[in-house]
Amino acid sequence: MKKIWMLVSTLALSACSHYQVPESPNFPANSRWAIMPMVNNSSTPMAAEKAEQILGTHLYARGINATLYPASDVSDLASILDNNARRKSAQAWLVSQNVDYVITGSVEEWHYKSGLDGEPAVGITLEVQSAGDNVTQWRASGARSGWGRESVSSAGQKVIDELLNGLNVEQGQ
Fold it and tell me: Where is the signal peptide (predicted)?
């Protein structure tokens, strides 16, 4: 019995996660959304761009057809890696858009842990702002370390899905 308890405890602790997901206000289903660049605080290049693509898919599954900011036309490496250039370009684009809400955030972790199993580790914060006045309407964050055979993208999808569970969208309008 002691061996079974140890095995169950080990498996339960192998994939740890932590979330802070408050309930959001109700957002109308017919509101217009834009996904703006996320800040990449991780050590993995382009982690924010990967999270943005996953975010767009999960929003769509919840009935929100969010427009993703257009990719910038830069060709030099410094501009590609510069978050500020990407954000400035997206802000200029946003001025010409007719949207109600902007969703953005940051990626704190997006990598495989080193060691024998190399589990994925993902940490993400999401924030919804009113487009007109930039007032924050909702913010949530979560982190997860997955199983040894799980991909980082799969762990990222689970974190984003869990965070968006706190987003309330009125249906049937």
Answer: 1-19
Q: Measure the CA–CA gap between 137 and 67, rounded to whole angstroms.
A: 19
| CA dist., res. 17 & res. 10, Å (int) | 14
Domain span at 82: 16-170
Query: CA angle, corner 17, sides to 111 and 119, nearest 5?
Result: 35
Please give the DSSP secondary-structure letter assigned to residue 55. Answer: H
pLDDT digits (tens, 9 = 90+) for 8-51: 444 444 458 899 999 999 999 899 999 999 999 999 989 999 99
Task: Determine, yes or no, domain membership for 8.
Answer: no
pTM higher than 0.90: no
Report how many domains make up the chain: 1
Burial class (CB in 10 A: 0-12, 13-18, 19+), 159: buried
CA-to-CA distance for 108 and 122, rounded, in angstroms? 7
Which CATH number does the domain housing residue 44 bear? 3.40.50.10610
In a domain, 5, yes or no: no
- Does residue 157 belong to any structural domain of this protein? yes
